[in-house]
Amino acid sequence: MRRLAIFLGITMLGTAAWGQNSAHTTAQRNSSPDVYLITIDTLRADHVGCYGYKQVETPALDALAADGVRFTEAFTHSPITNTSHITIMTGLLPSVHGVTDFGVPLSPQHVTAAELLKKRGYQTAAFIGAVILDSNTLAPGLDRGFDFYDNFPAKTDSKERWGRVERRGMEVVDHAEAWFEKHRTGPHFVWVHLYDPHDPYEPPPPFSERYKDHLYDGEIAYADSALARWIAFLKKAGAYNNAIVVVTGDHGEGLGEHGEETHGLFLYDSTLHVPLVLKMPLKTAAGAHHGTVIDAQVRTTDILPTILSATGVAAPAELSGESLAPLISKKDDKKDGAKDSLNRVLFGETDYPLRWGWAPLRALRDGGTKWIEAPRPELYDLQADPKELKNLYAPDNSKVQAMQAEMAKWKAKLPPPANPAKVETLPDPKDKVEVQNLLHNAMLADDDNRPSDARQFLEKALQIDPASPTAFRQLGELELAAGDFAKAAVHLKRAGELRPDDSTAAFELGQAMEKSGNWPGARDALESSLKLAPSQVSARLMLGRVYLQLKDAKNAEDQFEAALLVDSSSSEGRLGLAEAQIQQSDFAGALPDLEAYTKTDPRSVVALRLLAHAYRGLGREQDAKRIEERAAGIEKK
Predict the structure, then answer these.
(1) Closest to 326 (Cα-Cα) out of 345, 304, 347, 342
(2) d(CA 472, CA 489)
């Protein structure tokens, strides 16, 4: 072992491929190692075979660990898929990159792994297993730097979960293999995301039978089989031996611990502790580490710096993590138990509770101690209490004071929050976990086309928390989808009263009132929504239609023009604007765009009717009759 450490040290000094940032020669660029990042969603470290778990078979993960380095104490910074993946891809804390919820765009100022490697000649591709990582919808900016990003179809009529919101692991791997076959020349940076362990737990056969009493484990076993397929493909393609392969979880899963069925709400180890396995190229000394186990605490922000140091790519100055290379090189010099000096402090955070109006949480995990900043703070001795069941918090506790001081130092380095919340004034998520479980179950039931079950979950949530704006909003959305607009309006109005800053609830209230013909009510709700979120094209289009119904053509014109400033190709915006102009007898103003529109879409009856109206207003009766006959002919067909 000592010989390996010396060999590794010599190699690190002698090559830019592991820790140096000197410029590459052409030969070095051509020999740059492939990089394969595999993230397995919702994967607890303590449910993996090589981490000591006996109830599930994970031969692919176990074999990869035998080929490389396994980190026993690896932790994510956030228990939410989008946030944690952005952290992996940027090497930045969530508070730094700012993507703390779904749909929040990644700022262009934060560079991604794909962008950095693409600049160094890498072919880059990403294959995702869930629509929540779709860069066109819920993960804007995550595709930056990827030559190919395997988003989901924009529209699908399928009511099945598969292909609409989730892809099974084997399908993800199929897509990755197909891309690789067409892009054989390297180097490659390929990210494969296996979503399967995420709830709902529905492993395919034979895993559904083999693990019928532990379906979460069945999903893990299935994801491992997809990983095995991908690794076998890389080996057959000759791309495995001299590649960097990283496998990690984006976060864990509550599984009922601390009352949390899934993840996102809390910062306990059940959702922060993830597996991390690193295999280095065999042609480097680092690749000579087989079956190495490192017990020092590390973080997912350390993944990108490690990849950059191993490929000789200069790391951005703002990175929150550090390369894992020093830990590997020092491994052979450390005695058992002498690991604390190598530990890296974990700063954990979740803003997910803010979705429901509850307090966000922050945590520090430093060696054997966990500090959680919450309305009711928590302190745990992890060595004596690994399940975090005995809260040792006391205001005069010296450890508490030390951790509070350390937390203050960490927060002082972070940018100010976009939406500052006074933690002490908001409900503690610990008091709301049962409600959150019910809200989550209602969302899954609705997504699975079980509206009756969803209503029952939401009604039960309201029995526990009668002032839950989310429960009222979800009920309103259910009734809106069912066509009961009166009921929908009642629920959505209550949601808006409880959370006045919810632009979506206000927009949906406007929808319900517009559908039921309550034009003044729809106008007021949509105006409220746009005050909160002015860039909503759909809200402006709907408000324009409402103003037309109210015979307020000037305000309708303003709304359609505002919508067209954001989306100049909007058919609804163009036709609405023309109708508003016609209502104001501005026939000449409406005519040019209507003529152009009917040339590009000659079968649009609505456009033809408006064009006939404009011609008639200008005294061109023959033209009006000709266009009306065209429209009537199309309607007959």
Answers:
(1) 342
(2) 10
What are the DSSP calls for 475-495, one per residue?
A: HHHHHHHHT-HHHHHHHHHHH
497 DSSP 8-state letter: H
> What 3-state DSSP class applies to 218?
helix
Where a domain ends, among 380, 396, 426? 426
Confidence at 287, pLDDT banded by 50, 70, 90: low
* Rounded Cα distance, 539 and 522, in Å: 10
- Helix ranges (H only) for 372-419 are 398-412
Structure tokens at 174: 């199929």
Give 335-354 pLDDT, tens digit per residue: 444 444 578 999 999 999 99
Count CB neighbours of 255 within 10 A: 16
User: Has residue 589 been placed in a domain?
Assistant: yes
Tokens representing 71 are 């980190």
Q: Are 318 and 106 a contacting pair, CB within 8 Å? A: no
Boundaries of domain holding 390? 359-426
Asked if residue 412 is part of any domain, the answer here is yes
Contact 76, 40 (CB under 8 A): no
pTM greater than the 0.85 cutoff: yes
Residue 551: both structure tokens together: 């015979």
The Cα–Cα gap between 145 and 313 comes to 15
List the 69-75 sheet strands across, edge first: 148-150, 123-127, 188-194, 35-40, 244-249, 273-279, 69-75, 292-299
Last residue of a domain, one of 387, 411, 426: 426
Per-residue pLDDT of 536-577, as tens digits, reads 999 999 999 999 999 999 999 999 999 999 999 999 999 999
> What CATH number is attached to the domain comprising 388?
3.30.1120.10
Q: How many domains does the chain have?
A: 2
Task: Give how far Cα 454 sits from Cα of 6, 157, 253, 447, 460, Å.
Answer: 61, 22, 22, 9, 10
Residue range 182-206: average pLDDT?
A: 96
Whether 490 is covered by a domain: the verdict is no
Flag whether 165 is in a domain: no
* Alpha carbons 369 and 366: distance in angstroms, whole number: 5
For residues 588-617, average pLDDT = 95
Please check whether residue 245 is in contact with residue 68, taking contact to mean a CB–CB distance below 8 angstroms: yes
Residue 299 pLDDT > 90: yes
CB atoms within 10 A of CB 144: 19
Q: CA nearest 86: which of 34, 125, 33, 138? A: 138
Helix (H) or strand (E) holding 459: helix 451-464
3-state secondary structure string across 8-34: HHHHHHHCCCCCCCCCCCHHHHHCCCC
The SS3 call for residue 397 is: coil
State the distance between the two ends of the chain, measured CA to CA, in whole angstroms.
Answer: 82
Residues in the chain, overall count? 637
Q: Across residues 135-161, what is the average pLDDT?
A: 91
Tokens describing residue 478: 């259910």
Q: Measured on CA atoms in the order 435, 441, 447, 452, is the torsion positive or negative?
A: negative
Question: Whole-angstrom Cα distance, residue 598 to residue 179?
Answer: 41
Torsion of CA 209, 210, 212, 218, to 10 degrees: -110
